[in-house]
Amino acid sequence: MTTADPDGLLAEQLLRFTRRVHRIQKRHIEQCGLGVTPAQSRLLRTLAHYGSPPRMADLAERLEVVPRAVTSLVDALEEGGRVRRVPDPTNRRVIRIELTDDGLKALRELRGARRSAAREILAPLTEDQREVFGALLDTLIDGAPVPGC
After folding, report:
1. Are 56 and 95 in contact (CB under 8 A)?
2. Cα–Cα distance, 25 to 38 (Å, whole number)
3. Which is the most buried residue in 17, 74, 87, 100, by most CB within 10 A?
């Protein structure tokens, strides 16, 4: 006799859901016609969170990737005019990465694509279900229990 494995089922559902989210987001990003990959989009979003241009090592750490991966992403985004390498004002050996005006414009378009993807993903849920889902996601992200759940 086999016993039910609720954690196994949840793990499979979570995997299927995250794949669906990635697939839909990728399609929406491609539809906006910017020629930006999901990884490049993530780097642009990460850059936007810094108050001043970060070093590549800072980006690698924040993105949890090896520095070489950041170099490839920056190379492609720089070629597209979305970021630029700038010298550090206090240490000429250090190079920092900053968003260009085209990069900021691309970020706005990418945000729209992500919102559109979220609307598609969340379409089957009622407003009440979305509220509960948001609270549950906060709990999973923060690791804190949701009051009343």
Report:
1. yes
2. 8
3. 74
Q: Is 46:63 a contact under the CB 8 Å cutoff?
A: yes
- Report field, pTM of the whole predicted structure over 0.85: no
Q: 130-138 — which CB contacts under 8 Å span 24+ positions?
A: none
> First and final CA of the chain: distance in angstroms?
32
Alpha-carbon distance of 28 to 23, in angstroms, equals 9
| Residue pLDDT, tens place only, 65-108 | 999 999 999 999 999 999 999 999 899 899 999 999 999 999 99
DSSP classification of residue 92: T
Task: For residue range 105-139, list pLDDT tens digits in order.
Answer: 999 999 999 999 999 999 999 999 999 999 999 99
How far, in Å, CA of 37 to CA of 62, rounded?
18
Q: Distance between CA 100 and CA 107 in Å, rounded?
A: 10
- Here the tokens at position 35 are 């020629």
